[in-house]
Design a protein that fits this description.
333 residues; Rossmann fold; seven-stranded mixed beta sheet; five-stranded parallel beta sheet; globular
Length: 333
Amino acid sequence: MLGIRRILLGVVLITAVASGLIMTDRTTASHKHVVWVLAWAETLPVEESIAGFRAGLADAGFSTNDTLELVVRNAQLDVGTLSMIVAQAIEAKPDLIATITTPATQAVMGRASGIDIVFMTVASPALIGIGATPSEHLPHITGVACASDYVGIARIIPEVLPSTRTAGAIFCPSEMNSVFNIKEGTCELAKNGITLTATPAEKVSDAPAAVQELIANHPDVLIVFSDSLSSSSAPAIIAAAQKARIPVFGVNSDTVNLGAVLSVSRDFVDLAHDAGTIAARILNGEQAAAIPYVLPAKSQLIVNIDAARQLGIEIPDAVKSRAWRVIERKVNP
């Protein structure tokens, strides 16, 4: 009788252990990595970055349907909201935090101890203390930078409008990347004989007055740089410039759709795809410290023939031939 009981007990224990192993295997197989994506503003570059990041993860085998839970939060240009969503992300203890824009990256860097970070749409990683070079950076953070093509935009303005001597732009003094844009833009424009005047605006609601101040100085052109304030204010900037018949040049592709004469822009979808690939490598076990951050290598020239024509500007054939995309309505004969 005792022998039978021992046999039955053994069967029960074996069954229990086997069931536990099966449950463990199922739990492992169904485990989803959790990634939080935190953004500072709701702009087209941010939307494109989210799309590219998703695609990069998916192409690396991390589908949001099967192996990944992607939590996206946007601060809508509000400091208090940014602090709140950063706290929520850290409390959730995700496998990784992805940041979009310089302010969002700065907000996470000093607080997310023990959580790897992948950044996107940061103009200068060195400027905000991520690392002086791509291979020499903080151990828990890497990603893809997106400094604008300051050289490209500075060279093409006089190619289209040889008489250009002055340019205007707004910027946000409290955004390090915005100040960086003005510094780099001023330097490159000066090399091409153009003086840049920059007017400060702390909030989107300050932008219209700042633009009118620029317009009052009668600049030859206005430039919309790539920071959260300028991107959010682009429709108002371009509308005011059109009314004053001042050509606008941009460093983001959405400015052309809004009426800028042309843009020399980074491909945010492509850059964020690279960030998604980096994130996948970290989720697969690589150390963030061993992955260099990436610097942008190419730009896209987009030309708006219709916007130029309305201002009496003839885009040179040499410029059109280099364009990645040309916007021009077909005119019926």
